[in-house]
Specification:
77 strands; 25-stranded parallel β-sheet; 31% strand; 12% helix
Length: 955
């Protein structure tokens, strides 16, 4: 019969009455018939799939409202899975014709129930032969003692699920068995309803109510479309391989699935079939479980707003745009923080010394100004266009860093053989497409247990997954949400791979890693938690890479109590506290992350925290970029810290960080602020508000035993006893570039401090020595360097050029040695109220004012300085000293008026005398710049605390 003789619609109506075997035969007639049969996917194939007593909806239990891609393919998978228990015969490979001579497992059907040939389950199992089918008619079957199954048999409940209930305890002592469409309830003498220790058992479409399934290796288990409710659980001990597919676990009193012990070396016949079956199942994703967050979470890009789901490459926003967006434009025009210290305009005293007592007039504009070229100083490469014609890294008006893209899961596997091996492993218990809800626990692994969880949903539990005692977990594409404690908990040397999961809305941390656990965590979405996103503590380790971590109420990543993870290539954003917090002797390597739009500090380090913070992008925060709090340490190198509403970097008391080669630009307040007043929040706020709930379920941990020795922790780090600020760019910040109000020593070497709205460097308080050496302080809106009364400071080898006020305004004690102070709008060097100062071998040329001015009763020595005339026709001398001053010694100072040829700074060339390291491009500078000095001052750091930034918080 030709298909074309009737309309296709009519054929579909006719074929809808055919049973499954006849559909298969029609599909083999010809290509036209096959295409016609396949077109029945949403009609007849759907009806057959949903009508199978062995299975339920293909997306049951987590997403029954979603249809599968193909109902026919889903039915095919059901048919393959239901035959696994029969495939334990020997394989005949000598000849293909022997397959037809193989003895078939002819089944006899036994009917059990009232009015049938057999009335009890026990009597049926006594008479049943190998592979017979025992059909249980509706009713309740209760046995008063344990039943032993000694031959392979199939138990099938007749009617709808729930009409056949078994109150029995079955022990399997045969190679294989299958149970289908049954309800298991525990008998009066045991909670275990089924157990096996060496055979294979298959459950299809069964319910367990208040009962326990127990499988011991080398026994195996396959459960499909089963419900475990009212405290039911599956307990797997030493299993080589078991498969729980599309099951519903609810109301558990302990863990719903417990995997304990290492897989035994012996394997039974079903292992290879279960492995093949697990690999043929289609990959499954929970709803909304993508590798990127929803599109309503936006970032700032050159083309306006762009969804974070797109890999962000060129991030760009002008400073004015960021100020307008955050509504802080007016604040940053003249930021006032403490002690009425305004950084938005020049002081009255600065204006008094300007030429003619005021600004330029028409006559002064005609005076000739001889500019000494100073553009070829040691940091000039940072102010020149790069080789790819992109803006200069040190003088770009807008921040244009290139943020790292998140890697895909496949890219992570390609570069990590260990993760690749874990992703391919199928050892232990495989849990796929299951729903865990409304109970105490989901999956618990202990004592070298192994499990693979894929495409499951964990909702409304105390915890979703707990992996302890050297166990190994592989979690792929699961959803973990609304847990009352942490979502995933790893400790006691647990390990594994956690990838492409959606972890959100949990009461504690999304991931809790402690006590030597060392998992690989890649490409997850960890968000909307009621506490932190990821917590690593108690010597916990782990590798966090390419994750989206956002919108958590506390720190996105919280590291404490000697936690030491690798946090690399993540996007951590829009948190309601800090992006990353390192506290209580926490460590870690934090590299190449994008940390943005967090309410508090992008990175917060304090109370012994000692991480390596390198090459991160910390931007658009509503507070400070990096906060180094009381007793904070760490290597902070090569980071881009820009467009934060507070300061770029905030350092508090007793802190010993190393800031090397960072770009701290376009922040609304100070670029780098060093403070020393006591941090009351750090002392009084050490309770619940400052950290996670560390004593989960009443367990008390002896943290002291976990802490490594101080020598071991710092053996690979350059030892310092003074906070170090070296080779950074502090540019275009809204107030002072470097603001120091500290009672502790500070070394500031080889930095570019350029185009900040306030003074380049302000030392407001400094009872210990603040040393500024080999810096370039250029084009700042107010003065170059300001040192206030009672401060100790040393300025050596700096280039201070073209600032809007005085080059150096010095009122403290110390030294000003071998600096180039050229082209500043006010005086070159102004000294006032100083108790003890040495001004030696400096080269000074002012733009308008005096070269060097001494005001008031200054005590000190000024000799061997070289002063160049700035303008012709000026009425002021280059070197001015108050007539009543008798405590200042002037000796061998040279004052030069203009002659031809033009002046040039040589022997040495313009300071600072530093150069770009060999082999590095300008885009990699200023990280690790060479410094032309060999000795550095070190001092003992006294203990002290600090209250710090108005925006600073521990989380």
């Amino acid at each position: 019969m030709e298909v074309g003789n009737l309309p296709v619609e009519l054929w579909r109506i006719i074929l809808a009455y055919l049973p499954l075997p006849d559909l298969g035969r029609c599909c083999q007639v010809c290509r036209a018939w096959r295409e016609l049969i396949l077109s029945l996917d949403n009609t007849r194939w759907r009806q057959l799939c949903l009508g199978c007593p062995e299975s339920r909806h293909p997306n049951w239990p987590s997403q029954p409202h979603l249809e599968p891609p193909s109902w026919r393919e889903a039915l095919k998978q059901h048919a393959i899975a239901t035959r696994t228990w029969t495939q334990n015969g020997p394989e005949l490979q000598s000849s293909a014709c022997l397959l037809f001579l193989r003895r078939r497992k002819d089944r006899k059907v036994w009917h059990v129930g009232p009015g049938c040939e057999l009335e009890t389950l026990r009597s049926a199992l006594v008479v049943a032969g190998p592979y017979d089918r025992v059909v249980l008619h509706p009713g309740v079957y209760e046995e008063q003692a344990e039943i032993v199954m000694k031959v392979p048999v199939e138990l099938l409940g007749l009617g709808q699920l729930g009409e056949v209930a078994l109150l029995v305890c079955l022990e399997q002592q045969c190679p294989t068995a299958r149970l289908c469409n049954l309800v298991f309830m525990p008998p009066w003498f045991s909670t275990v309803v089924y157990k096996t220790s060496w055979g294979h058992v298959q459950f299809d479409n069964c319910n367990f109510e208040g009962a326990q399934l127990q499988v011991r290796g080398p026994g195996t288990c396959q459960a499909r479309f089963c419900s475990f409710s009212q405290g039911s659980s599956a307990h797997l001990l030493g299993v080589v391989l078991s498969l729980l597919d599309s099951c519903d676990f609810s109301g558990s009193d302990t863990a719903s699935v417990t995997v304990e012990g290492p897989p035994v070396s012996e394997r039974n016949w079903a292992c290879k079939h279960l492995t093949s079956l697990a690999r043929t199942f289609p990959s499954y994703r929970t709803s909304g479980n993508n590798s990127s967050p929803p599109t309503d979470l936006l970032v700032h890009t050159s083309g306006g707003h762009q969804p974070l789901g797109v890999n962000v490459k060129n991030e760009h926003m002008s400073m004015e745009g960021w100020l307008h967006k955050t509504g802080v434009g007016a604040v940053c025009q003249a930021t006032v923080i403490e002690d009425c210290w305004s950084e938005g305009e020049c002081s009255d005293r600065e204006e008094q010394i300007l030429e003619g007592g005021g600004g330029y007039d028409a006559k002064n504009q005609l005076n000739q100004y001889y500019r000494i070229p100073c553009d070829n100083h040691g940091l000039s490469h940072l102010l020149k266009p790069q080789k790819d014609r992109s803006p200069p890294v040190g003088s770009s008006l807008d921040p244009t860093p290139v943020a790292p893209e998140l890697l895909t899961f496949q890219q992570e596997l390609d570069r990590d053989p260990e993760a690749q091996m874990l992703a391919a492993s199928t050892l232990g218990c495989i849990v796929k497409r299951c729903l865990f809800r409304e109970g105490k626990g989901g999956v618990h692994l202990s004592n070298y247990g192994r499990a693979r969880l894929e495409g499951n949903v964990f909702r409304g539990l105390n915890y979703a997954v707990r992996c302890i005692q050297n166990s190994t977990i592989v979690m792929l594409r699961n959803e973990v949400c609304e847990c009352r404690a942490s979502g995933v908990f790893l400790r006691l040397a647990a390990q594994g791979l956690i990838a492409e999961n959606n972890i959100h809305g949990n009461g504690e941390a999304g991931l809790d890693i402690r006590k030597g656990a060392n998992p690989i965590i890649v490409c997850n979405r960890i968000h909307s938690g009621l506490r932190s996103g990821v917590v690593v503590l108690g010597n916990g380790k782990g590798s966090l890479r390419s994750n989206w971590i956002y919108n958590n109420k506390e720190a996105g990543v919280y590291i404490l109590f000697s936690g030491n993870p690798v946090v690399s290539g993540n996007h951590i954003f829009q948190g309601q506290a800090a992006g990353i917090a390192v506290n209580e002797n926490g460590r870690g390597v934090i590299t190449n992350n994008v940390i943005r739009e967090n309410q508090w500090g992008g990175v917060d380090i304090r109370r012994g925290g000692d991480p390596i913070l390198k090459n991160n992008f910390i931007c658009y925060g509503y507070s400070d970029g990096v906060v180094v709090g009381e007793r904070g340490r760490g290597l902070i190198e090569g980071n881009h810290v820009y467009c934060n509403k507070g300061c770029g970097v905030w350092i508090m008391s007793s802190s010993l960080p190393q800031l090397l080669g960072n770009y701290i630009t376009h922040n609304c307040m100070y670029g780098l602020a060093v403070f020393c007043s006591r941090d009351r929040r750090g002392v009084e706020g050490e309770g619940r508000d400052g950290q996670e709930n560390l004593n989960e379920e009443g367990e008390l941990f002896a943290w002291e035993s976990d802490l490594d020795s101080e020598d071991e922790r710092h053996s690979a780090r350059r030892s310092i006893s003074v906070a170090l600020v070296e080779s950074n760019c502090l540019n275009f910040n809204g107030a002072v570039g470097l603001y120091v109000k500290s009672s502790e020593p500070l070394n500031v070497f080889a930095n570019l401090i350029n185009s900040n709205r306030g003074t380049g460097v302000t030392v407001l308080q400094s009872s210990q020595l603040t040393r500024l050496a080999n810096n370039c302080i250029l084009n700042n809106g107010c003065g170059g360097v300001t040192v206030e009364k009672e401060c100790r400071a040393e300025l050596r080898g700096n280039g201070i050029y073209k600032n809007g006020g005085h080059g150096v305004s010095f009122s403290g004690s110390g030294q000003i040695v071998e600096n180039d102070v050229v082209g500043n709008r006010g005086c070159g060097i102004q000294i006032s109220n100083s108790t003890d100062v040495k001004v030696l071998r400096n080269r000074v040329q002012p733009a308008r004012g005096c070269g060097m001015t001494v005001l008031g009763p200054v005590k000190g020595v000024i000799h061997d300085n070289l002063l160049f005339q700035g303008q012709t026709g000026t009425r002021r001398t280059l070197l001015q000293v108050d007539p009543g001053n008798d405590g200042c010694v002037l000796r061998n100072n040279s004052i030069l008026t203009f002659t031809s040829p033009a002046w040039v700074l040589e022997n040495p060339p313009p300071r600072p005398l530093v150069s770009s390291p060999c082999g590095l491009s300008s885009s990699q500078c200023p990280s690790r710049l060479g410094i032309s000095m060999t000795t550095r001052i070190s001092a003992t750091v006294e203990s002290g605390c600090h209250s710090g930034s108005m925006f600073c918080s521990i989380l």
